[in-house]
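Notes from the 1:1 (GR / supervisor)

We went over the backlog. Supervisor wanted to see one worked example end to end before approving the batch request, so GR pasted a single chain during the call. The sequence is below; no edits were made to it. Supervisor asked that the structure be written out right there so they could see what the output format looks like.
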Amino acid sequence: MDARKFRALVVEENVDGVFTRTVRERYISELPAGEVLIRVEYSSLNYKDALSASGNRGVTRNYPHTPGIDAAGTIVASTVEEVRPGDTVIVTSYDLGMNTSGGFGQYIRVPACWVIPLPSGLTLKESMILGTAGLTAGLSVSKVVAGVSPEEGPVLVTGATGGVGSVAVAILAKLGYEVIAVSGKADAETYLKGLGAKEVIDRGQLTDQCARPLLKVRWAGVIDTVGGDMLAAAIKSTQPGGIVTCCGNVASAELNLTVYPFILRGITLCGIDSQGCPMKLRQKVWAKLADAWKFDAMERLCHVSTLEELSDHIDAMLQGQRKGRTLVDLTG
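Structure output shown during the call:
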């Protein structure tokens, strides 16, 4: 038995069915089997973490549980030659923080195939300001830039104050695209223009209130993070040959559309899956995030939380009160 202790946020279900969150000490021996033991320095808060931390069994089946689908830190033990003690690494998605003890603890143990060496252009802290949201934004941006140049027209980003949306706005602006950002938050304009958005529109201006199969062309590409009617309206307003990416369903998983945007305007709809993303593509996107796509406003979109403060940040995220990213500092 490994008697070493570490601090972690633990979510558990009480006898009355209420889920509670507490920061407590755990033993390394309690971690699941795996080839690599990592001392976590930073994690980040994602919507999936907030669901797991609230007892959502669609995300996490069994409790007690430590969420955190992101982690960055230093390897302290490894049974494979590809990654060695002392290496700085990042782990995002796969099953981390869902049904495997996650990054809201100071140690994780995972399969070696989940581990990515920290790119030379990023610090551990910067990698977790990005985290899964940054990877998802990067995957979305890669689809847009492959099919739409800045000269062809603006790119719409929905849910723009969220983690994925914020990073996408900043990357697209750095690459020279005119970005139209969508948000329902009254105080979003200053924040989003600070990240590089050219225009900020309220989601009510976008949502399609009619049954028309096509709408007036407004943009060359779309990065959608919310789904539902907003995605449908965005697709209907995309110019011929445009690229639309889809990575979320917080508004709705339903998509009420005809085929006309696709067969009359040749629009491409690209689904984005960061959880099961192949390792080669994952590494390629992280390399770009650390170099050509690295933007100066990274600290601006970041809130910093300790483990003790994290529960309040989770509640704020579930209530739609968060902009940007929440970095979890586990170095204390």
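Supervisor's comment: The domain at 133-271 is CATH 3.40.50.720 (Rossmann fold).
Batch request approved.
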